[in-house]
Design a protein that fits this description.
single chain; alpha/beta; globular
Length: 148
């Protein structure tokens, strides 16, 4: 199975507000940078979307190290929350609807295709690729706002 590194980040101007996401995929010395934006969204949605969009770029099942500064996204897998949510019909422990269930369902399906290893990185620190992703996300927000 091919080994891929995926760095991701999300950003929001207002929360909710215009949001952007950025991702960098690395494989075998090659690098691909992607980004996008949406109106009326949240930072958490953009963090999850960044991972989804990065994984969508993969044409075959891969072993993926996913680096994110989002504890919400990382903990969903590292603490097995996503499997608990799925087993509870995409509801939280208190039986209330899970926020962002549409994205979590999609990410869960992608996690079945790929072998994912989530790594939490400190945001806005000295991690080069996290900073690149942050810039991709914030630039996507600026571009989206200027097109309105």
């Amino acid at each position: 199975m091919k080994k891929v590194i995926l760095y991701t980040d999300g950003a929001c101007s207002g929360n909710p507000g215009v949001g952007g996401w950025g991702a960098v995929l690395m494989f075998n010395g090659h690098e691909k940078r992607i980004s996008g934006a949406e109106g009326a969204t949240t930072n958490n949605r953009m963090e999850i979307t960044a991972v989804i969009e990065g994984l969508r770029c993969l044409k075959e099942p891969c072993c993926v190290d996913v680096y994110s500064d989002s504890a919400y996204t990382v903990n969903a897998f590292e603490k097995n929350w996503i499997f608990e949510w799925k087993n509870c019909g995409w509801k939280k422990g208190d039986n209330k609807p899970l926020l962002n269930a549409d994205l979590w369902k999609e990410l869960y399906l992608l996690s079945k295709k790929h072998q994912l290893n989530f790594i939490k990185v400190k945001g806005h620190a000295d991690n080069e690729y996290n900073n690149i992703c942050d810039r991709l996300a914030t630039d996507a927000v600026k571009s989206f706002k200027s097109s309105l």
